[in-house]
Amino acid sequence: MAILKIARMGHPVLAQVARPVADPTAPEIRYLVNDMVETMMDANGAGLAAPQVHIPLRLVIFQAPGERSDPGLAEDEIFDHTAPLTCLVNPEITVLDAATEGGWEGCLSVPGLRGFVERPAHIRYRGFGLDGKLIERTARGFHARVVQHEVDHLDGKLYPSRMGDLSRLIFESEIRHFAKTEEA
Ligand code: NI
Predict the structure, then answer these.
(1) pLDDT for 29-54, tens place per residue?
(2) What separation in Å is there between the alpha carbon of 106 and the centre of ligand 1?
């Protein structure tokens, strides 16, 4: 296992369309994912896409722990809002309805900044696990956001390009001026 170097905004690997993974069960994919998990944990991130570690393949990891979801959710609503640590190979996203939701995002490739990004609020995603089995889930809230953010990396997109209002691209040390009204 190793902690990998994370590419930062401006590196060409972050701007290209990544290639599909031929075999999700190949040993080298498992080694890569192990290193990506260690790298993400070390950097305290919620997700990481292979291009962020200079590997232009369609593979992401992410987690949506319960503590990141809205505390007002009922027991039967919380399922779509959370996900265990997941590796998704060759992911695809379907937007399920027209509703969008704004939320603050950060990115390990854009260190020190936060941006307020509107995204579809309710999605379905599918992809393959490292065992080659299909993973298919619906997602809302932070779960939907982190998956869309990571899959954007596979198409060469960073979150600032998803922002409509760049006055809300800020240093994370200034988030206190915004968080009360927009993140609560
Ligand atoms: Ni990112």
Answers:
(1) 999 999 999 999 999 999 999 999 99
(2) 7
User: Cα of 97 to ligand 1 centre, how many Å?
Assistant: 24
- What is the whole-number distance in angstroms between the Cα of residue 110 and the centre of ligand 1? 7
Residues 6+ apart with CB under 8 A from 82: 64, 65, 66, 69, 143
150 catalytic, yes or no? yes
The answer on pLDDT for 174 being more than 70 is yes
Burial 33-43 (b: 16+ CB within 10 A, else e): bebbbebbeee
- Cβ burial of 89 (10 Å; 0-12, 13-18, 19+) is buried
Catalytic residue chosen out of the listed positions 28, 77, 105, 150: 150
